[in-house]
Amino acid sequence: MPEIRVDGMAVNAAEGVTVAIALLSAGRNRFRTSLSGEPRAPLCGMGVCMECRVTVDGQPHALACQVVVREGMEVAT
Amino acid sequence: MIVVVGAGPAGIAAALAANECGRAVTVIDENPAPGGQIWRGDADQRWVVRFRNSGIPLLAGARVVWGDPVSRTLLLELPDGARQIEYETLVIATGSRERFLPFPGWTLPGVFGAGGLQALAKSGLPVQGKNIIVAGTGPLLLAVAAYLRGKGANIRLIAEQTPAASLWPFGWNLAKRPAKSLQGLRLAWDLAGVPYVPASWVVSANGEGRLQSVVLNRRGTVVTEECDYLAIGFGLQPSTELATLLVGPDTLVAATGDAELALLEGRAAGYRAAGNVPKAAAMDPDLRRARAFADELDKTFALRDELRHLADADTIVCRCEDVPLGRLEGKDSFRDAKLHTRCGMGPCQGRICGPALNFLFGWPDTSQRPPILPARIGTLLAEDQGLRE
After folding, report:
1. Which of A75, B166, B224, B273 has its CA 20 to 30 A from that of B302?
2. What is the value of pTM for the model shown?
């Protein structure tokens, strides 16, 4: 089970899942904050809506629904 | 070389057909594994297995952001960089995505596309014990509900906007297609005990910071149902961005529909790409039959007028730029809305609000300009250098 860090907190993810699955499984509902301050989470689940974008290892705008978790990955929402 | 964009049913069928004709093929897909949305996470699906065993190279995790039909080049963005790829013939099998319609609360976490929630569940999202409402239109709702139920979810109800009077004739026609009726019976079995309510739709989604309940118009009666997730789908929308950008004599487009139609479309496109016209033409009767079924589906599950009036002035229409419906008042086109409100100008480039606005106001979808997806500056520079060489 790879361990990733989400906003500095340790989260255990199942092997081979995407960042979106790891965050949702851990009960995280805010992947990004919209322009007017709303929490947003994945909508389309398939790389179209861009609502799940997070920063992965310093790379902004990564789509959580398409990036697979790796041991030690740093995710910022 | 033949390049196929998309490794779903159509892309896989196209690649296998071209490969069968002895041509070199490469497939590009933005997901980590082949199978598209419908066979996502299903490594044992027989077409996915056939594709894997064929040895056809797959560039996974690669998004096509730009292309040039004159030099026949595609620009790809990968997690760790950019890459250009040249093609002699291109098969575009980019499939479709879900159509969304705005209603109050649809931006809450916990509201997913129906196919989207299924895709997430297929990728490993646990749904065991979750209370889920499935709403919208079309047979996809049934497939999604059955799948989620199979994973232990508690499906509270399926709200189908189509009235029963339209569903019956469709069901009757289905009986003439043995394979489809079998699928239907299988779904009915899997969903035994789950209320399937025609002439019903979501009025609003509610909750603090995440979805907690859904208000439904249930055959004319307004009811509130508590739930953890809402899975909504108002039909499918073909993803035509790349096809629009790269229209040309060396580009073939495999249309989309259900998996059966997509497989046929893809195979025919693959034969054509390989120059084997007789083999492609021999598929015409099968294609006609499958397309007729797709047309029947579209007619049966046409969206009802009431759905045009779900959003109020404060309901966000463009989720990227947080543009509420009220700000679109008096605008006469998508372009007008873009210029004055930034509606449709965020990272999804109008992929979500475009089809909704087309339904709400009859505005034709926006023109296509590259890059067709948000891309890193480094990716665009890589293309610049490529063009200078």
Report:
1. B224
2. 0.91
